[in-house]
Amino acid sequence: MPIESLKKVAAPSAQEICALAAAGGFKLTVPASESPAQYVNDLLAAKNLTEAVQFFAFALPPREAVWWACLCSREALREPVPEPLKDAVDAAEAWVRDPSEGHRRAAMARAQATDLKSPAAWAAVAAFWSGGSLAPENLPEVPAAPHLTGCAVAGAVMLAAVIFEPQFAEQRRARYIASAIDIANGGNGRLKPPAR
Question: Based on CB atoms within 10 Å of each CB, which residue in 85, 105, 122, 177 is the most buried?
Answer without folding.
Answer: 122
